[in-house]
User: What shape does this take?
Amino acid sequence: MSSDTKTENSRGGFGSKIGFILAAAGSAVGLGNIWRFPYLAARYGGGIFLLIYLILAITFGFTMMLTEIALGRKTGKSVLGAYKEADKRFAPLGWLAAAVPAIILPYYCVIGGWVLKYMCMFITGNGGDAANSQFAAGSGSSLTFFEHYISLLGQPTLFFVLYVLIGSVAVLLGVEKGIEKVSKILMPVLLVLIIIIAGYTLTMDGAMDGLKYYVLPDFTDFTVTKLLKTIAAAVGQLFYSMSLAMGIMVTYGSYMRKSDSLEGSVRQIEVFDTAVAFLAGMVIVPSVFVFSKGDPAALNAGPGLMFITLPKVFDSMPGGQIIGAAFFLLVSLAALTSSISLMETVVAAVMEKTKMSRSVSCFAVIAFTIIVGMLSVMGYSVWSDFELMGMQILDFFDFISNNIFMPILAFFTCILFGYVIKTKYVEDEVKVNGDKFRSVHLYRIMIKVFCPICMIIILLTPFVTDI
Ligand code: PHE
Assistant: This one.
């Protein structure tokens, strides 16, 4: 509906409710769901983690996401203008909310480039090379393909730049013609792909043991400390998975139509995000389990799981080239819609602040992404000896955004909406189309008490998930 797209000052907007839901789900579903969620679930007692995650999603995740989307829709502005309009004293939060995606976007695209490379290898039938661990290192030892690959400069740069350019097409085309269209095509494809891959992996011999390990709760050595660690890991994961405290939901909310249900949309985004994460676990846990002959330690490979362990798993399974190609296509699509949302958030802020057109702002953001992203690429390559606070450059960007800026932003967002301008601000926005706010009591207690406490825990225990 073109009349809806011309909102105040022609910022553009989503043309349909489903378009908004799929775009927000596209942002939420990303590397976090496919790679991080399954191994956290495996590490923190299977079913126990799943249950805790689910409870947190419908309480904590719901509250934070609803607040951000409501702020965006009410103000119709980018993060910079939105926080300022809510309360002048909180304007710096808007800058923080714009800084987070600007920090994440470049390195997320570097990882996106790695995924693209793997996808191309599997599609061209060379997935076996990715499973090779015999690359010579200087001192006579050997490197995995992944370690070898990221130590190069040319190819990782090429795939990184290619990935940025692919993602920027949707942002350049605008909200309705670009982001909404792309999400409406890619998200259903992604869902079908993951269901097919999960169905296939579950038919393998021994997969059922892996599935049991994934979904049944494991209470052995279960202590209060372990429970607390599990909760902290689940909050951290949820936060990242639902793209909270990155300004994204505020930006996408600002493009949402006033007539659509806010509460209902948030519930649907949550279901989509959680379902994809759960299905990803049904692919990864059983397949790694079969490959490692039931040794759960293989799942603990952390970041190496996706780029080192999984290619070996695909290489060893019948039809693995096809499944591997489908899997890395799935991951590429998931990562792409997430980076589009990051880029859109930064572009919207630049457009608002500088009054430049969408295309000029977009080119400026592309240039910034490539320049800053190159620091991460070089951090593994020619600058591999360089460390920031004991971390590689990419890890450092990841650390300051996820462990410091995001919890601070979320904490002050709770204070702003819980105590300063009060919950009525969001409540009114939820009811603006005549809807009832069904979870209003839950919302109030969460935003005032539970969510800020969770944020303090996250801020104080950055190493609790050992990642
Ligand atoms: N929500 C994404 C995921 O689960 C993470 C993400 C989205 C990160 C957008 C950055 C930007 O992977």
Remarks:
- Confidence is low (pLDDT under 50) at residues 1-8.
- The chain has one domain: 3-466.
- Residues 27-28, 30-33, 104, 108, 240-241, 243, 246, 338, 341-342 surround phenylalanine (CB under 6 Å).
- The radius of gyration is 21 Å.
